[in-house]
Design a protein that fits this description.
Layout (H helix, E strand, L loop, with lengths): L14 H13 L17 H12 L13 E4 L5 E4 L7 H6 L7
Antiparallel strand pairs: 1-2
């Protein structure tokens, strides 16, 4: 079954509010769900990831994976936190190890 993407916009006014929203979404997340965020530097993407992780029960520190490209965290569901800002195309994802031949 293929589902259409669900796009939604919510505006929060503080990192704490962003984290609360993300935690609420994480509590209803199901296996296979994909959440994509984009925004300028400092827009709150990592704050969202921290809140989402908290909602999944992640106990490790969540920080921006800018230089490692991806961080994996264990929770009720696995959380793969990617920062694709520095990738110019899909071949960079292959070279960076985000895509493999499995």
């Amino acid at each position: 079954m293929t589902l259409a993407p669900l796009a939604s916009e919510r505006i929060t006014t503080s990192p704490e509010a962003t984290q609360r929203l993300a935690a609420a979404l994480a509590r209803v997340a199901a296996p296979g769900d994909l959440v994509c965020l984009w925004g300028e530097l400092g827009a709150g993407k990592t704050a969202f990831a921290r809140g989402f992780g908290r909602g999944l029960g992640v106990r490790t520190t969540i920080s921006s994976p800018t230089f490692i490209l991806m961080a994996e965290h264990e929770g009720r569901l696995p959380l793969f936190h990617l920062d694709l800002y520095r990738l110019s195309d899909a071949s960079d994802a292959w070279a960076g190890g985000l895509i493999d031949d499995r």
